[in-house]
Amino acid sequence: LQKELLKYKQEARNLQGIKITSPQDALQQRLIQQDAAVLQLKQELLRANMDKEELHNQNVDLQRKVEERNRLLAEYKKELCQKDRHLQQHQTKLDEMLRQLSEASYQQVDLERELEHKEALLAHCMKREAEE
């Protein structure tokens, strides 16, 4: 009966995909599984380290680009300040010229009035001389 029971147990295990192994075979099977798991973890660690290195390189590249853009921005700001100073200087010169032009215009108006007044005096003198 025991032999038959053992036989049926063997068949049941075979049907379920479980084979009877010695303790050494089971231990070796377990070591193989652990080695496979360790290998898989090492591969995942390697991938993670490669991803980390790639991200680090991207970060360095982005920092370099940011520094370059900051340098360009500083140059543009410097140029803008210089152009603002030049513009302010030209505005000051323009204001001075407009003031001088305004003064010249007032002087021209005064000279034209004086000329008209003298022409009127001359005409009056000529008329008086013609009457005399």
From TrEMBL:
Any one annotated GO CC term: cytosol
Residue stretches in coiled coil: 38-114
Keywords for the protein's UniProt record, in alphabetical order: Coiled coil
BP-aspect Gene Ontology terms: canonical Wnt signaling pathway
Official protein name in the record: DIXC1 protein
Lineage: Eukaryota, Metazoa, Chordata, Craniata, Vertebrata
